[in-house]
Input
Amino acid sequence: MFDTATGEFNFEDNNLDCYSIFDHKETDFYHGLNREDEFYKSPSNMKKAPHKRCRKYPNMQEFWESTEPHSFKMTADDQSAWRKFRRWFLIEIEKSKTRTESYEEMALRKHADEIDISMGNFKEKGVINQTNIACFKWDFTYFMTEPQLADYIKKA
Output
């Protein structure tokens, strides 16, 4: 998979089954650099059946920035419900075509109060976790009696 693919998306369902979707032999990373345009339009190449013709492959950047549909491969665990996952995935792709906001905007709207400090908005003051965690609050003085603590403070 890693020698034929340039990117992948990993998923995990409620049953802890893992799924991976990746491009398979779709870029010049696998096929090598493209030749000049004349090679692909040559009579010898055009005589071949359409599925056997040599074609130009996009580079990695062009492929991942492309908006046209491409085929992807999917791998899954042995006992996974991959048909159910594939059906859900295709439904989510269709839903995403009609959405006006990106996934990041949806996640921010839903979880903004929880992830404020990690969003990188440096104009707003983020709230740091102010809970007194035991490892920061308690040291050896916690276990001293009041007279021992008073002596310790006098010596310090």
The helical segments are 28-31, 37-40, 43-46, 60-65, 82-98, 103-111, 134-137, 146-155. The chain has a mean pLDDT of 81. The CA atoms of residues 90 and 96 lie 10 Å apart. The radius of gyration is 28 Å.
